[in-house]
Amino acid sequence: MDKIVIRGAREHNLKNIDVTIPRDKMVVVTGLSGSGKSSLVFDTIYAEGQRRYVESLSSYARQFLGLMEKPDVDQIEGLSPAISIDQKSSTRNPRSTVGTVTEVYDYLRLLFARIGHPHCPLCGREISRQTNEQIVEQIMHLPEKTKLMILAPIIKSKKGVHKYVFDGLKKAGYQRVRIDGTIYDIDDNPVLDKNKKHDIDAVIDRILINKENQKRLSESVEQALNLGEGLAIVYNVDKKEEQIFSQNFACPECGINLPEISPRSFSFNSPYGACPACTGLGTKLEIDPELVVPNQGLTIAEGAIRPWARTTAKMGWYTQILVEVGKKYGFSSDVPYLDLPKKAREIVMYGTGEETFQVPMGFRTYETTYEGVVANLERRYRETDSDYVRKEIEKYMTEAKCHVCHGTRLKPEFAAVTITNTTIVDIVNMPIDKCKEFFDKLELPEKEAKIARQILKEVKERLGFLLNVGLAYLTLDRTASTLSGGEAQRIRLATQIGSSLMGVLYILDEPSIGLHQRDNAKLINTLKKLRNLGNTVIVVEHDAETMEEADWLIDVGPGAGEHGGHIIAEGTPEQVRNNKKSLTGQYLSGQKDVDCPLKRRQGTGESIEIVGAAENNLKNVNVKIPLGKMVIVTGVSGSGKSSLINDTLAKKLANVYHRAQNTPGKHKDITGLKNLDKVIDIDQSPIGRTPRSNPATYTGVFTDIRELFAATPEAKMRGYKAGRFSFNVKGGRCEACHGEGILKIEMHFLPDVYVTCEDCKGKRYNKEALEIHYKGKTISDVLNMTVEEAYEFFANIPSIKVKLQTLLEV
Predict the structure, then answer these.
(1) Pick from 381, 495, 507, 632: most CB atoms within 10 A?
(2) CA 702 to CA 706: how far, in whole Å?
(3) Contact 477, 429 (CB under 8 A)
(4) What is the pLDDT of residue 122?
(5) Considering the domain boundaries, does residue 103 fall inside one?
(6) Other CB atoms within 10 Å distance of the CB of residue 699
(7) Are residues 373 and 324 part of one domain?
């Protein structure tokens, strides 16, 4: 069957519509906001496709996947298993990155495990592992009759007389040792300075290079490796040079041993590879001295140290300790914190080590050390079992880069493994376009190239898909939770192309949102590539360029809500363009256009100025933002818009006006904040995740409506207050369903079933609350009204009308 046929679709505002969609094509569904596009595409086509697929699985599998509710539709034919790629951020897990989501990082882990070159994390020296045979073969390449000395390293840079070492070697039958570069006979009982560091090597053999001595050389090297715990030293007597060979991944200089390298060694989600200090997160919560002393004009005695404010009041314990510390180090607790010497502030914050102080309390004197505010809070945070205490201390903490791994997330020994002098950390920190360029130009030795061929093919393909959807600016170590909805959607799109599935129905929700026009063509080509694999691609979209490139265009309308739900036009873009009934067609053909105002707003004349913004890719930017105007910040994807506004300005404003504890992006100064009274950040996160939240409760209009019902004569006579008309509290709500209107019946191995509450018939309220009427309508009737109907109904109530008018206007 080459078509998807939908008959009698009535989900939400759809008016019993019939529509035919060609298979294996790129289909764009467009129309006014609220016209029914999502009801058709997501709530009907996707819901039924997903439901049928899940129903075909075993009951055991279904309990984990869940089953979508059957949409209100008569019949759908020709449906494939459906995959929805929406704009919700894929995860809030701080361990999830662009690299892990796209599986590029999985291939990088495999690549570095197979052909990576380990290096010492301390001295940077390359560490190689060789068998006894490989070491002997390498030595035999030296010129014939070369004089060699084979040694086994025993002690490396350790203080002491090391008599037990000499006694052990003597009992084992060894005659000579090399101490700090000089050969000694063990029988001479060498005496060492116990206060100096020494190097001690056992002399295993002295040998000339020739074919006759190869077997002897092999035995000597093996003996040296056994005695030196995997290390052997070959000293060239003629050239006075030595070479260290290792049977293990071990640094002969620093004595560091590396474990066996495998793909899990490079996983920051595995205890084998993750930095133990930050458990693979790359960041740690640390006490911020600025949050500890928010008002530096106060004295310590007045409570300048916020977390100790209660205990430092009057003559508390911490006050008494600081008084004694101050006596010793020459500062007073009655001087404003700002005026204390720098050394004194450091002592207050970081303590005095093991030094003890005599602290009088009451009639006794106690001996104690002073650990400092920072160490005190960190210890209490680490030791407490109380969630309350933990949350209180977190008020004085900020997220900072891990000091052990420096944000790489990995153990230092694995972060030092290289391929052509480039570490896995270097690669994931590159923008994706630079990363692709690196692998395109990568030249490997023949053996390594053969091992890496298939891995590199997968890496380059996936990086190419990310480039094609306009994500060249992202890095592979970017945390997935920081991606915008559009970025997360395009990453999932690239991942789907990488999976190379065929015969699937893909459904996308406005993938062009947030994408600069420069990158739009790449996105459209990616959608076509997904189609060319043998899939049907349905896109809900308003972008004109995407509509023009569609194989089939469907216009839903003519209006929003109850005025929509009809198929106004369908066909090729050319056919829709020529359809006079289609509002979309009129805009595509140029008959209608978006009007721009000829006169611009003057503004207040004031402004906010950001000075020296340098977060992420911002290059010390200075920008002035006029107030009282609508200001647009634009630029290609990844140019630094979000870094400037969201990460720098918005976080600074939240700290100033909402007492937030954000860390704003790097900048020198932000001036003009005094010109603002209030700041509201409207982001793309959902407004509510509970079934009790609805537009009436979120906008606050429901409070006015409840007060209006409570003011009716019947409600006053019964003594009902506004709370009686809330479905969230006892009193007026239906107690059978707790005000939800539906009951959930758990089916265990089958999907849960939701049924209408029999007591309230889905109205959420009990009989008494529903007996109160305003203009003939109950509180339940009002909640079931559309915004448009409610606006007309409450036209004479200004407090309700103004809020509903705002909803109508947007």
Answers:
(1) 507
(2) 6
(3) yes
(4) 86
(5) no
(6) 16
(7) yes
Nearest residue to 435 (alpha-carbon basis) of 444, 446, 422: 422
CA atoms of 597 and 23, how far apart (whole Å): 43
DSSP string, 198-263: EEEEEEEEEEE-SGGGHHHHHHHHHHHHHHTTTEEEEEETTTTEEEEEESSEE-TTT-PEEPPP-G
pLDDT confidence bin for 333, thresholds 50/70/90: confident
CA-based nearest residue to 18, from 4, 32, 38, 35? 4
Which residues constitute the domain of residue 360? 283-401
Looking at 558, 588, 618, the residue that finishes a domain is 588
Residues 756 and 776: beta-carbon distance below 8 Å? no
Q: What does the alpha-carbon distance between residue 475 and residue 460 come to, in Å, rounded to a whole number?
A: 15
> How many domains does the chain fold into?
5
pLDDT tens, residue by residue, 90-112: 567 888 999 999 999 999 999 99
Rounded to the nearest angstrom, the gap between the alpha carbon of residue 489 and the centroid of all alpha carbons in its chain is 15
Full strand arrangement of the beta sheet holding 197-208? 182-185, 176-179, 197-208, 147-159, 231-236, 241-246
For residue 124, give both structure tokens.
């940077």
Spell 594-631 as b/e; 16+ CB within 10 A means b: eeeeeeeeeeeeebbebeebebbebeebebebbeeeee
**In the 8-state DSSP scheme, what is residue 116?**
-
- Tokens 């092999």 map to which residue? 218
CA 590 to chain centre: 43
Does a structural domain hold residue 378?
Answer: yes
Sign of CA dihedral 738, 743, 748, 751: negative
CA–CA dist 176, 507 (Å, integer): 78
The predicted pLDDT at position 312 comes to: 46
* Cα four-point dihedral sign 685, 690, 695, 698: negative
- Angle at which helix 373-383 crosses helix 342-350, to 10 degrees, equals 20
Prediction pTM value: 0.69
**Paired sense of beta strands 82-85 and 505-509, if any:** parallel
Q: Write the CATH number for 375.
A: 1.10.8.280
User: 167: Cβ–Cβ under 8 A, 6 or more apart, which residues?
Assistant: none
Residue 74 DSSP SS3: strand
- What are the C-alpha distances in Å from 190 to residues 160, 165, 176, 177, 182? 12, 11, 11, 10, 11
Contact 405, 276 (CB under 8 A): no
Are 535 and 626 found together in one domain?
A: no
Q: What is the DSSP letter of 694?
A: -
- 702 and 800 within one domain: yes
In a domain? residue 492: yes
